[in-house]
Design brief:
By secondary structure, the protein is of the alpha+beta class. It contains two helices and five strands; from the N terminus they run H-H-E-E-E-E-E. It is elongated, with a radius of gyration of 20 Å.
Length: 101
Amino acid sequence: MKTKHTILDRELFTHALRHMGEEDLLYINSMVVERLNLLAQAKSTAQLAQFAAGDRVNFTANDGTIKHGIVLRLNKKTVSLVTDDAQQWKVSPGLLRKSTP
């Protein structure tokens, strides 16, 4: 089970936000966006680590059909694969499931 540490009191933070000027708010915004991007990148990297070239995978396409294929390459944010019907796709690793051969 994950434990969360509260670094600051949310109520106090909310109160402080209400009294900040534009410059401080823009600074905090940039810090929040940077942190969210870092968390997203870490999540994507962890998801990508579950796959390797040659893995058999499946995913649900936008039209609802289930596609089966083989991983060709791991990209920075996506997995390149070729489906059994010879289509090439770049798919988010979070949408892929490993299949049995």
